[in-house]
Amino acid sequence: MEDNKTIGRQWFEEVWNQRSVEAIDRRMAADCVVHGLDQSGNDLRGPAGFKPFHQAFLNAFGDLHIDVEDIIEEGDRVAIRWVATGRHTGDGLGFPATNQQMRVSGATFARIKDGRLIEGWNNFDALTMMQQLGALPPPPAKW
After folding, report:
1. Is residue 81's pLDDT more than 70?
2. Which of 79, 119, 122, 137 has the least C-beta neighbours within 10 A?
């Protein structure tokens, strides 16, 4: 059986870099709860709840690539620090493509049971992403 670090690493490789919808079903438990990805603050539930987010984000960034920078495992939990890059070429974020490049960092904490994700917490620098895309003004020159 794969260790949880391998499962966490493969999630990003298969689901995001290889754009495999089938990997979502294979790697995520049916009752998985995903926190921190819905703009309204609601949790996503199971593959059916996660797939619309996945599709929208890949629509927005057709060349999305996520590099796992660090991964730590303790018991049934993994902490993953990652960097995402991509060009905004679609309207999956809810506004027209800007053709701007983005690079953001983020972290995912996941619980894994029997080789499948059962809960995930996500945090990424959405403010910087939106500023890079021109959807929000840049920060002031001096803080």
Report:
1. yes
2. 137
